[in-house]
């Protein structure tokens, strides 16, 4: 299995967790530990619908904006600006996407995402409400991405995100395009 360094610490990559518009996230472990972590490697692949500045700086800035807003997120454990890598806490559980895909309802978590939405709005930010960005662990909902942008009503949960939080036509289209 491949290893990557974050600053001077070596991490063994266990498996790819996801590939987003900003990077690749891997389940990882320090070589001297059994604790599971997430190692995110920033990429510079083109994205037709989103423009980026400095991605590693944006991840760090957004992390602190989210923490200040009170939105439940995994802790950032390390950042390697030169190699554009972040290590963060691993939140074990199913994503909202997996829950819906498996025929279950995300309704038990709507109050929590609406609370996150209110916190985001109050902080003047939007988060990415797509259901792959939310993990349920111990009955609590976590926003596992650090992406946030200036608040715009059209990208709020109520106007955009909720379209993907149940077995809607929009959700089924995403399943089709993902080949699921």
Features:
Phosphorylase Kinase, domain 1, 3-stranded antiparallel β-sheet, 180 residues, 11 strands
Structural notes for this entry:
By secondary structure, the protein is of the alpha+beta class. It has four helices and eleven strands. A six-stranded antiparallel sheet has the order 1-2-3-4-6-5, with helices on one face. Helix 1 packs across helix 3.
How do the strands and helices of this protein lay out in sequence?
Layout: E1 3-6, E2 9-19, E3 23-30, E4 37-42, H1 55-69, E5 76-80, E6 85-89, E7 94-95, H2 96-101, H3 110-123, E8 125-127, E9 134-137, E10 140-143, E11 148-150, H4 169-177
Antiparallel strand pairs: 1-2, 2-3, 3-4, 4-6, 5-6, 7-9, 8-11, 9-10
Helix pairs in contact: 1-3
Question: What's the short version?
Answer:
The chain is α+β, with helices and mostly antiparallel strands.
The total tally of domains equals 2
Overall body shape: globular
* Helical stretch tally: 4
How many whole angstroms does the radius of gyration measure? 16 Å
Distance between the termini: 27 Å
Largest sheet: 6 strands, antiparallel
Helix percentage range: 10-25%
User: Helix/strand/pairing class, anyone?
Assistant: alpha+beta
pLDDT average, as an integer?
Answer: 92
- The arrangement of helices and strands along the chain is EEEEHEEEHHEEEEH
Major β-sheet strand ordering: 1-2-3-4-6-5
Number of strands: 11
Low-confidence stretches: none
What fraction of residues sit in β-strands?
Answer: 25-35%
